[in-house]
Amino acid sequence: MENESSGMEPRSSHAGASDSGGAAGGAPSRPRLVRALGRWDLTAVGVNQVIGSGIFVLPATVAALVGAPASVWPYVAAGIANALIVLCFAEAGTRFRQAGGPLLYTATAFGPFAGFLVGWMMWLTRVASQAALANAFALYVGFFWGGATQGTGRILVISATIGSLALINFRGVTWGAWTINMFTIGKLVPLGIFIVLGIFYVDWGSFSGMLTPNMSGFGRSVLLLMFAFGGYELITIPAGEARSPRRDAPRALLLTIGIVCAIYLLVQIIAVGTLPGLASSATPLADSALLFLGLIAGTFIAFGGLLSIGGSNAGTMLAGPRLTHALAEHRQLPAIFAHVHPRYHTPDFSILFYASIAMILALTGTFEQLVAVSVVARLVFYIGTCAAVPVLRMRAAAETRHGAFQLPGGMTIPLLALAVNIAIIFGADQRSLAAGGAAIIIGTMLYVLGVTRR
Length: 454
What we know:
Layout lengths: L38 H12 L7 H9 L5 H22 L8 H9 L1 H30 L9 H21 L1 H26 L16 H15 L15 H30 L9 H10 L1 H35 L18 H17 L2 H29 L1 H4 L11 H16 L2 H24 L1
Helix pairs in contact: 1-7, 1-9, 1-11, 2-8, 3-8, 3-9, 3-13, 3-15, 4-5, 4-13, 5-6, 5-11, 5-12, 5-13, 5-16, 6-7, 6-11, 6-12, 7-9, 7-11, 9-10, 10-11, 11-12, 13-15, 13-16
């Protein structure tokens, strides 16, 4: 694997700290993160994070907005839009071997403050999502045990969910990857059964009028699906623990978006073709399966939803602490966040800090409140990555000729991806915009404090 040019690294003495091997000149080195993740491990991270609880409720929401027969078109539009963003991540990802993802891309292109702000917003998105998913997990457990949704039962479920995942990831990245792979299989099996069996029960006459969607709800449905497609960026964060990140991360990104688009489209087609009252269903997949497979199938799909949220929780716990580790590696957070456990080779303090904050948020907030915190934050690092691609390309023309992946069409794809993100911002509600603005202000204050102390 060829080395990145020094101009591609914000801090040459620290940017490569996640690379395997000892310190320069043969000096004793501190413990390093282990490169143990392959292409399919990274793909599992992406699929897990994208396919969460949304797939179990969004078919009805989209059908209500644009009409059931035409509800496949917003999925196509959202898939294309996210593919543009993924392509920007793929090009940027080929230029680095170390961990950090959008944080690293933005810092290299626009400087340390932009990088810190992106990293801060990514971490905020992850920890708020972790807390929100823990609440959602408790709600799904409530389908089987009513006590899980309130009081002591809720506290026990949330604490067990976050605590167990933190412990697994503390013991090693391979354990975390195995957990994610297990949840990926667990969530895809019920969805696979739903698709494979459901396709034979589709009433194709239900798609009469699919060429005339309700355009007044089309934009809103695409925006909802854009959020539902989110999460693939987490593939780039543990890339510092991948065996060949410059080769495997871009391929994992493209595999993830392809797999997700296929699953989403097929699920929507089956839901439209098998459930007459799709637009008014609270649990569209379970209700659809109930019609063509019976009562047991409804319970099975509900259990699939439980696994889906559990998988997203596992993937978030793997990637979230690596953000503060990367920020500390770049000297933008106290050095304790970069500490690596001498035995397990994991960012132990970052995991402990992340899990503690997630636990506090989960126990004191509701699912809706926590989601509002994470909505706009995601847009910041999407914009940062898409805007960084042209800058990185111009700064590394020599490296590009040596095999780094470059998107075709010049600046067309990055500019289109930026336009998509701007459209998302204009479609966000005032509460989400206010939460994102407050987070940016807090992050700026932390950065200024850190610079002043340095």
